[in-house]
Amino acid sequence: MTYHKEVHQDERLFAMLIYVLSFFTAFIGPLVVYLIKSDSPFVKYHGKEYFNFLISYAVYGAISWLLVFVLIGFVLMPLVGIAAFVFTLIAAIRAYEGVEYRIPFIIRIIR
Known about the structure:
- By secondary structure, this protein is mostly helical.
- It has a two-stranded antiparallel sheet with strand order 1-2.
- The protein is elongated.
- The chain has helices spanning 9-21, 28-36, 41-66, 73-97; strands spanning 2-3, 99-100.
C-alpha cells in the first residue's frame, strides 16, 4: 500500500466512486468515471485495479459455478461473493484515504 498525501480530495472521491458505483452498475458506472477522470494517475490506477478485480472475480464465479456439479461450488460460490463484497468495500475506503490499494487474489491483466 502506498499512501499519497498529495492526492487531491476530488481524485480520492472519484477513485472511491469507481468502487461504490460497482454495487449498482458493475461495469458501466466505473467505466464512465474511469474515462472521465483518466487524466489523474490515482484514478487511473484504481480504475485498472477495479477492472482487473471484475475480470478475476468473474472467472472465479464461473469456476465456482462449474464446480457446483461436483458439489464444491456450493461452498465456493458464497465465499467468492462475500470476498468480492468485502474487498470492494476495503478498496473504496482505501481509495478515499489516498492509498494505492492492491486487491488480493486478482489477476492483473490490465496494466
